[in-house]
Amino acid sequence: MDDETSFLRALFAAAVEAVSPARCVPPHLPAPPAGRTVVAGFGKAAAAMALVVEQCWPGPLSGVVVVPDGGGVPGLRQIRVIEAGHPVPDARSVRAAAEVLSAVRGLSPDDLVLALVSGGGSALLASPGPGVTLAEKQQVTRALLRSGAPIAEFNCVRKHISAIKGGRLALACAPARLVSLVISDVPGDDPATIAGGPTVADPTTTADALAVLARYGGAPPASVARLLASPAAETPKPGGPAFARTAATVVASGMNALEAAGALARARGYAVLDLGEIEGEAREAAAGQAALAARIARGEGPVAAPAVILSGGETTVTVRGQGRGGRNAEFLLALALALQDGPRVWAIACGTDGRDGTEDNAGAILTPDALARAARQGLDPAALLADNDSYAFFEALDALVVTGPTRTNVSDFRAILVGRPAGH
């Protein structure tokens, strides 16, 4: 493994460590209540967050957290862990939503609900709205996953066809005090979007949801169309009485991850260009960053080489092929093709949760010789990209990054190295 590849892995590790529950949860824990404390957690970081709460909380706890398969942690004693389907909800997701709702009902004003919220919670808590079946909700979810819809618009639809998202869990918690600690996986860090916003008021409307479906999802099932045309689909809005005793705090975000990686890069002698959190098609983001890397290499960029271009957020992929992709691997393959006649760069793109879409890898690493090595193996990178089969490209080069679940989730992390510091 060359120095640049090792350094890219170190940057990713620093980014993930900066947003670990062990680091970000303790400073934001509220004071214990006079009554009971019930934990309700959902998302990829929920079990790790719950473990931190158990370790720090001065009194008894009860409750339940819902995680994807393999997302549990050892050591939990008071809070129960349930596994459910992700990214498409399954029957376990429906049971999990029912258990979370049951855990918070019947509380008093002296009680506290501590909601531990992180990305992935939308699929893990599935409570289809009136007249909608799980199969129909799965159909809508799959269509939007393949459409390239941004996460805020995707979750707008999910909130309005749900009986728990979009602030409805907060209704069930009243009159108890409700405090949400949130690890953000969305640009802008809006708690109303993260995990479908079950504990916060929803400013979006059914008209917004219908517009998203028209733009991305095609014709929804008849039951979904009927629900979205009815008052039952409208979510509780800001200013409602159910939110008078609620608070939501974002305890970690993608920007924290980028800041940690940037500090490490500067310590190693690199200039840092932090693009912040980005959205849009993975291929288009790759083209833009390839052009930026080329300008830096020519001495015409906003920073001088040696430099690291950092970005977070979450790109999307409009799936048209039949291959095994992942937005991060697709970004890197498109970057390689865009730079094939340009400067030599090294790059990493990974999901901070340890998953690149539905595959078993967090992402991949791109080295300057990737296209040449692929050619020697008879691979056609352009054809693989057209088939959304970037996974196969990096698998053949033994360049996938496989971490397993990281038990946090602030969306994606990307770093591009242009040039080498002196002495390397």
Topology of this structure?
Blueprint (H helix, E strand, L loop, with lengths): L2 H16 L2 H4 L12 E6 L3 H11 L5 E7 L11 E5 L6 H14 L7 E7 L2 H4 L9 H14 L3 H10 L7 H6 L3 E7 L22 H12 L4 H7 L17 E7 L1 H14 L3 E8 L3 H16 L9 E7 L13 H12 L6 E7 L11 E4 L3 H7 L4 H6 L3 H7 L3 E2 L10 E7 L6
Parallel strand pairs: 1-2, 1-4, 2-3, 4-5, 5-6, 7-8
Antiparallel strand pairs: 8-12, 9-10, 9-12, 10-11
Helix pairs in contact: 1-11, 7-9, 12-13, 13-16
Overview of this protein structure:
- This protein is an alpha/beta fold and 424 residues long.
- The chain folds into 2 domains: 3-14 and 255-418, MOFRL domain (glycerate kinase, domain 1); 20-127 and 162-201 and 236-252, Glycerate kinase, MOFRL-like N-terminal domain (Rossmann fold).
- Helices cover 38% and strands 17% of the residues.
- It has 16 helices and 12 strands.
- The strands form 2 sheets. The protein has a 6-stranded parallel sheet with strand order 3-2-1-4-5-6, sandwiched between helices. It has a 6-stranded mixed sheet with strand order 7-8-12-9-10-11, with helices on both faces.
- Helix 12 links the parallel strand 7 and strand 8.
- The longest helix is centred in the N-terminal third of the chain and has 16 residues, at 3-18.
- The protein is globular.
- The mean pLDDT is 95.
